[in-house]
Design goal:
This protein is an alpha+beta fold and about 800 residues long. About 25% of the residues lie in helices and about 25% in strands. The protein contains 21 helices and 41 strands. A seven-stranded mixed sheet has the order 29-32-33-37-36-35-34, sandwiched between helices. Strands 3, 4, 5, 6, 11 and 12 form a six-stranded antiparallel sheet that branches. Helix 6 crosses helix 7, helix 7 packs antiparallel against helix 10 and helix 11 packs across helix 13. The longest helix is centred in the C-terminal third of the chain and has 19 residues.
């Protein structure tokens, strides 16, 4: 919300600098994001308000003219210009005049560039100044002609003093809907600074035919439209709005269009009530021969209308429409229709000022992807009592600025006016909630400054009865009133106190501690944690399989009001969102090693809410080693790098019985995928991503190792406390063992038998060679292991180590028919 201080000063007075005012507003809950000084770049000694004294032909050019300008100096100056809106014979126009040395924007440059005005000769005529366009001054992109000011612009005044301003940019939270207007901010400034607030004038000269019988209004869905008011202004003249209005709209961040549209925007910004102007003569009656009709109703499914942006919209029965007697003319609270817009040929205007349900407006705007300033206000809540004051203000402006004739009276449908809110609260609540002691009179003074009507009841302790203004939609309970007291009193003045009671003992949460241990270990392995959206879409999930078949959306939890189609369903796996994150990172990096710990959402039969177990995803791709002068060859990470990370994680968690088994999975390349089991229970899958799946996510042609594990099971199997085992001080003996065994026997099973047979003296087993060749029978392979024997309290002899080795050979022969390799 941009607030020009010159506009704000029309409605409130204050004795603070712009910076002090911004700080006071921020401390009062209205955060000022920035203070913009408009016109600082306009040199007060070189850019002035000027008046055209004469325009005559250029003697040597058909498209150029000579303009004599009075800019407050002793002598006027003649300059050359090609502006199409200054013609031979013109006189009296107020313009912006710059003299030699002025710094202006170059209107012909593709990027923002400044240039210093220099004396030049144009077709034989010397020119030491120029009349400026809005683009050269940085006001807008308009460079079609020079900027023409209002007739009352003071000649010779520095343009920075005439047009410059200070603009506060407010970052308003949703509960501050009342402040989405100049008047709303003025009320806050008055309360915070002790100034006096002035509301816009409500008087309107209505000399036209009474509005009765000229328009009929009917609200069919009062739950979505509490009030609909309208005014009729006839015989208007469409044209540009005055410069003072255009200036304020531009400073507020809006683009001037014409006097009618600008008035609706001006009043919306000033008072907070969105307005819409219909071409009255285009509106159709419900019955032939009757007056034009406005009907507020829900849309019929599939009903269509072309909005002002030229796009045909299709509506659902959840959307509210403004219709005439034959069909839609506007989307309620969002945007008007193209067929009834105000054009240069418009003569009569029906001015709408209505109130709509904020949830309905938000849903419709999001569904149609059609945001607007009106939606921003309606979507936070607008006071239904504001419709008529805003109509009076806008109708009077159309009378004075568009020469319109205002019909007597207003059409006003208000089926269910809300009751006035009255709240009683004990004065002691202020001390209980804020920690400060204020008298009832002090509390009443603060609330009265905010337009609350207060009465002190003779109770013990004192009770303050408060009548809430209609525009304070955010106040519903006594605590809201105490919050208002705190804002105006000053958050910065509230005392800092320590809690008086003893803090309860902190209960250890072993589950969270183990989760943090997982993070610590993965970061220690060189991985980076990522956080992705919990919402996904069916196309993204379908990309996880080479066939690309999307799952049944009925099996997923869907948001009732998604922000976009890309984030519509609650995810059931981390695989697709992790691959999307990898793809984004690979645009800038050649090596990505990431993990994520997050919830997935699994629907439960006969339950409203889904299960939300935690999952762990890991992704590795790119060179195994970072770039270094120590090596020129860079091997790429693969399945075994990922398996090593998972093994390191399990070891860190005290899990010693994890097992890996080959499997098939659509997301992964056949032969390069395995399941992971812990405690005999499968907890996830790891592998290298299938080439087609890689293409689905626009990933480069390289190996991408990916895993997803059930973190709930993993943490249940973890050892919260691991016993420290001191390393043995005794010497170790190393023996090699090479066996010939059936090809189908997994090496993990072989290692398990070796460890069981080796007993407590076998401290380490490492597979260092796998051989298949001519010396072996078909279907056999040779596995070579390095065995490390070491006792805790004694020195082992070679005979003892050899004995254990023989026992291992016997057990392998019994279990798998293995033979020592010669």
């Amino acid at each position: 919300m941009r607030v020009p201080l010159s506009w704000l000063s029309d409605h409130v007075t204050w004795d603070l600098s712009a910076e002090e005012l911004a700080e006071r507003l921020t401390l009062g809950g209205l955060e000022v994001e920035s203070v913009d000084y408009v016109g600082e770049e306009w040199d007060r000694n070189k850019i002035f308000v000027g008046e055209v004294l004469e325009v005559r032909e250029h003697p040597n050019a058909d498209r150029l003219v000579l303009v004599t300008v009075d800019y407050g100096a002793e002598e006027p100056m003649e300059v050359v210009t090609g502006a199409p809106n200054l013609e031979v014979g013109n006189t009296g126009q107020k313009v912006v005049f710059a003299i030699e040395g002025a710094r202006l924007i170059d209107p012909y440059a593709d990027t923002l560039q400044y240039k210093e005005l220099e004396r030049t000769t144009i077709r034989g005529i010397s020119s030491a100044g120029m009349v400026c366009s809005e683009k050269e001054l940085g006001i807008s992109q308009d460079h079609t002609g020079v900027m023409i000011l209002d007739e009352d612009a003071p000649v010779g005044k520095p343009f920075a003093d005439y047009w410059g301003d200070v603009v506060l940019d407010l970052d308003l939270t949703p509960n501050l809907a009342r402040c989405f207007s100049i008047v709303g901010v003025a009320r806050e400034v008055a309360a915070l600074t002790g100034g006096e607030c002035h509301l816009p004038g409500a008087a309107v000269e209505a000399e036209g035919t009474p509005i009765e019988g000229q328009i009929e209004i009917r609200i069919e869905d009062a739950d979505l439209c509490p009030r609909y008011s309208a005014a009729l202004i006839k015989d208007i003249e469409i044209g540009p709005s005055p410069k003072w209005m255009q200036r304020r709209l531009i400073l507020a961040g809006m683009r001037p269009v014409n006097n009618i549209v600008d008035i609706t925007n001006y009043v919306m910004w000033e008072m907070g009530q969105p307005l819409h102007a219909f071409d009255y003569r285009v509106l159709r009656p419900e019955e032939e021969g009757g007056p034009p009709t406005i009907i507020v109703r829900r849309a019929h499914p599939g009903e269509t209308m072309t909005t002002l942006d030229g796009t045909e919209r299709t509506f659902t029965d959840e959307m509210l429409l403004i219709t005439d007697g034959q069909g839609p003319v506007a989307v309620a609270g969002v945007m008007g229709g193209e067929d009834t817009e105000v054009t240069e040929d418009t003569v009569d205007v029906l001015l709408e000022s209505a109130n709509f349900d904020f949830i309905s407006v938000r849903r419709t705007s999001q569904a149609l992807k059609l945001p607007s300033e009106a939606t921003q206000r309606f979507g936070r809540g607008v006071d239904p009592e504001l419709t008529l004051p805003a109509l009076r203000r806008a109708a009077e402006l159309m009378r004075t600025l568009a020469n319109g004739t205002v019909a007597q009276g207003f059409a006003d449908a208000y089926p269910n006016p809300p009751e006035t809110k009255v709240l009683d609260f004990k004065n002691s609540e202020v001390e209980r909630l804020l920690g400060i002691e204020l008298s009832p009179e002090e509390v009443v003074d603060i609330l009265t400054s905010l337009d609350f009507l207060c009465e002190i009841l003779p109770d013990d302790p004192p009770v303050i009865r408060t009548t809430v203004p209609s525009y304070r939609l955010d106040v519903s309970i006594p605590a809201d009133l105490v919050e208002e007291v705190a804002r105006i009193y000053g958050y910065d003045r509230l005392p800092t106190t320590l809690i008086r009671d003893e803090m309860p003992p902190q209960e250890p949460n072993m589950d969270l501690r183990l989760e943090e241990r997982v993070r610590d270990k993965l970061v220690g392995c060189g991985l980076t944690e990522i956080i992705t959206y919990s919402l996904t879409n069916m196309e993204s999930v379908a990309n996880l399989s080479p066939e690309g078949e999307p799952p049944d959306p009925q099996d997923y939890v869907r948001l009732a009001n998604p922000l976009s189609v890309e984030h519509e369903y609650m995810r059931q796996t981390l695989l697709n969102t992790t691959l999307e994150a990898v793809e984004r990172n690979l645009r800038y990096l050649d090596r990505v090693v990431v993990f994520e710990i997050a919830h997935v959402y699994l629907p439960q039969e006969d339950e409203k809410l889904p299960r939300e177990p935690r999952r762990l995803s890991i992704a590795l791709t790119g060179p195994r080693e970072r770039r270094s002068w120590m090596t020129s060859e860079r091997e790429m990470m693969d399945f075994y790098d990922l398996k090593g990370v998972i093994e390191a994680l399990c070891t860190h968690l005290g899990i010693k019985d994890e097992e890996y088994a080959p499997t098939e999975h659509g997301t992964f390349q056949p032969g390069r995928v395995a399941t992971v089991s812990v405690g005999g229970r499968e907890i996830g899958v790891l592998g290298e991503v299938h080439p087609i799946v890689r293409e689905n996510y626009d990933l480069p042609e390289r190996r991408i190792a990916l895993a997803e594990l059930d973190l709930e099971v993993l943490l249940r199997e973890a050892e919260p406390l691991q016993q420290f085992e001191a390393p043995s001080r005794m010497p170790a003996l190393k023996l090699d063992l090479a066996i010939v065994i059936d090809e189908m026997v997994p090496p993990d099973e072989v290692e398990k038998v070796i460890r069981e047979a080796g007993g407590e003296w076998l401290s380490d087993v490492a597979l260092f060679d796998v051989y298949r060749g001519e010396q072996l029978e078909e279907g056999e392979r040779s596995l070579a292991y390095s065995l490390t024997f070491q006792a805790a309290e004694e020195t082992l002899t070679s005979e003892q180590a050899a004995e254990r080795r023989e026992r291992i050979v016997e057990r392998l022969e019994e279990a798998y028919g293995a033979q020592l390799r010669a």
